[in-house]
């Protein structure tokens, strides 16, 4: 049986898929493991579990980088393998994609699905900021101004929406992954201790960004670089927060710069409606409070923020009559994206 509709959000950290027939959302890590650089060994969560642990001849790759497809063939293999477990031939696809990327990068999302073995019936795209806003239960056609900040694994996307369209958008190419790298760097410099990306992520998730707590510690495993031996050590919350500070400030700067450029009428509405935080990083403890205090505009988060754009896509797919005009096909004659 063919003819299902899938919604896709191809993230740097996780791929999210909405299956219309089953009315369910699922996600898998954006990772693929290859053996001897030729054979596909594992995909998704299974491949990610092997990261930093795999034997020499197995390489774990992350085909998405900074919100765009960096390794086209690997990404195509990954997606095909994930969808193969389902009925995916002859289906329709709606993909949520970032706005502030080049036409070539946008086209790659389209080609990825259209020219894959999925033999897609149709492929359309929707701006991720719009899908996010619908996922936040914002009436996108009526709102006079609202800001969405999607903080993901490899990007931060800032979108200002008004009356069914995106007024301003900026994609910053840093996200959770870069925060974790900062933790790795600081622990290395400060303690001569080497930790992996997954350990850094665990530290960040445990400690969060902002709270009264200044005393917590967490025991982690790594390599003592002076002795060259594997060891366990305690890392304090202060060290982790210090590592996150600079990038959080970059994020605050980006929001403030955008706010300065917003047309006054939209800004007035935006100040009333506030900023909505989505993406997996919105789960970090204290992040909404930190941003609200730094920027001076109300910041709200939704439940399961990493699935927010998928919830929006689900609405778009289910209510084509209402939301159909927000989706585009790149083959349309009148196709035109935000300039
Ligand atoms: N409960 C949590 N606490 C803290 N951080 C979390 C939590 N859940 C997810 N994250 C972080 O969120 C990030 C992934 O978010 P998300 O799934 O939105 O990214 P993505 O869509 O794959 O990436 P992008 O949109 O940047 O391409 C990761 O860095 C992950 O560590
Ligand atoms: Mg994302």
**Architecture (CATH level 2) name of the largest domain:** 2-Layer Sandwich
What value does the Rg take, in angstroms? 21 Å
- Straight-line N-to-C gap: 40 Å
What profile does the largest beta sheet have? 5 strands, mixed
Enumerate how many helices there are, as a single number.
11
Number of domains: 2
Largest beta sheet: strand ordering: 3-2-1-9-10
Order of helices and strands: EEEEEHEEEHEHEHEEEHEHEEHHEHEHH
Strand content: 25-35%
Mean pLDDT: 94
Family: Belongs to the heat shock protein 70 family.
Binding site for ATP: 153-155
Keywords: ATP-binding, Cell shape, Cytoplasm, Nucleotide-binding, Stress response
Subcellular location: Cytoplasm
Give the key terms.
339 residues, Nucleotidyltransferase, domain 5, 5-stranded mixed sheet, flat, binds adenosine-5'-triphosphate, binds magnesium ion, cytoplasm
Summarize, please.
The chain is an alpha+beta fold and 339 residues long.
What does it look like?
With 339 residues, this protein is of the alpha+beta class. It has two domains: 5-131 and 308-326, 2-Layer Sandwich (Nucleotidyltransferase, domain 5), CATH 3.30.420; 139-301, ATPase, nucleotide binding domain (Nucleotidyltransferase, domain 5, 2-Layer Sandwich), CATH 3.30.420.40. It has helices spanning 44-50, 72-84, 103-114, 128-135, 176-191, 197-207, 237-261, 264-273, 287-295, 308-318, 320-323; strands at 5-10, 14-19, 24-29, 32-35, 39-43, 58-61, 64-65, 68-69, 92-97, 122-127, 146-151, 156-162, 165-172, 193-194, 217-224, 229-236, 275-278, 299-301. The strands form five sheets. A five-stranded mixed β-sheet has the order 3-2-1-9-10, with helices on both faces. β12 (156-162) and β13 (165-172) form a beta hairpin. α4 crosses α10, α5 (176-191) crosses α6 (197-207) and α5 crosses α7. The mean pLDDT is 94.
